[in-house]
Specification:
With 312 residues, the chain is of the alpha+beta class. It is 35% helix and 25% strand. α1 packs antiparallel against α2 and α2 packs across α3. 33% of the residues are buried.
Length: 312
């Protein structure tokens, strides 16, 4: 049986306390493969809110803690089935499935074969082993950021509903931009840009299924939705304190890399965590009009609402 690419996860410059707490959270999940896991407790072990824990887990490890737990349970079930000691229904119930039918559906979705077929020694499976958290102390990357306090803001934009499960959003959002650029919507929306420029806003996050809404947006100002491209919706953001990070490099890779650096380098070393309200990316007018979004000099920003960490 083959192992998963998730087997080793290397983290950049972080505090040893953060790494220790994160390992405790992962160990808690691992100890509850056969029991109901309390994500609130896992978050407390990581010394952060549930929202921040879920976002951090997704950005750093590429999947939500709930999805990680599901894959680990299915992997443990696959090993039990390969041992040919228990009935399928017993294995299904052991790892939290209410029926062999729902278990078989989840099993086949992950492994591509049925639980019965997994009993054959000739059938290879790509299992998901526990995350191995390795801290590499570098200190060779700088991050430009500032703290800004903003009152409530209102934007208008074109909306995509997506999910972070399986990294779907990392492909869906760039594709959404391409589609809306191709049909002229981005160009028409850009005519109404305010001082901030174009934005990509993540909001309406639902931890239970890792879904959220994403809007290609501009500041509403005094504009009517009738003036904007068809299908535009209002997006309202509450007052918040933001950590604003500068990004330089071609899209979308540069900004995706920055998100990961924020969660593996900046948050663990800071006194803040995600406040749980919408965050967004800003694509301002470039200093040099000749700079395009595939240039190494392209400038963008990530705005994350923050709050002080609770002591734990």
């Amino acid at each position: 049986m083959m192992s998963s690419p998730l087997e080793g996860v290397h983290i950049g410059e972080v505090s040893m306390d953060w790494a220790s707490r994160m390992r405790q959270a992962i160990e808690y999940l691992e100890s509850h493969l056969e029991f109901q896991a309390d994500m609130e407790k896992a978050a407390r072990l990581a010394n952060c809110s549930l929202f921040h824990f879920c976002r951090m887990f997704e950005v750093v490890f590429g999947l939500s803690p709930a999805e990680y737990l599901r894959r680990r349970r299915l992997s443990a079930a696959a090993l039990d089935l390969a041992a040919v000691k228990d009935k399928v229904i017993d294995v299904a119930l052991r790892y939290g499935w209410e029926s062999p039918e729902s278990f078989a559906k989840a099993f086949k979705r992950l492994f591509g074969i049925t639980p019965s077929e997994a009993r054959s020694a000739s059938v290879p499976l790509e299992l998901w082993p526990p995350i191995e958290l390795t801290v590499i102390l570098k200190g060779d990357r700088s991050m430009k950021y500032r703290i800004e306090q903003r009152d409530a803001m209102e934007f208008a934009g074109l909306v995509l509903h997506t999910t972070s499960t399986g990294g779907v959003n990392l492909k869906a959002i760039p594709q959404f931009w391409q589609e809306k650029a191709k049909d002229g919507s981005v160009e028409r929306l850009a005519q109404y840009c305010g001082p901030m420029g174009m934005l990509g806003i993540c909001y309406d996050y639902k931890p239970e299924d890792n879904s959220f809404a994403y809007a290609i947006a501009v500041e509403r100002g005094n504009k009517s939705l009738k003036d904007l491209p068809q299908g535009c919706q209002l997006v309202q953001l509450p007052p918040a304190t933001y950590a604003v990070f500068e990004c330089r490099g071609p899209m979308p890779q540069a900004i995706q890399d920055l998100w990961k650096q924020i969660y593996t380098d900046w948050f663990p070393a800071s006194e803040y965590e995600h406040a749980g309200t919408p965050d967004f990316e800003v694509y301002p007018e470039q200093e040099d009009p000749a700079v395009t979004d595939n240039s190494p000099n392209y400038r963008s920003e990530v705005w994350i609402p923050i709050k002080k960490k609770t002591k734990g």
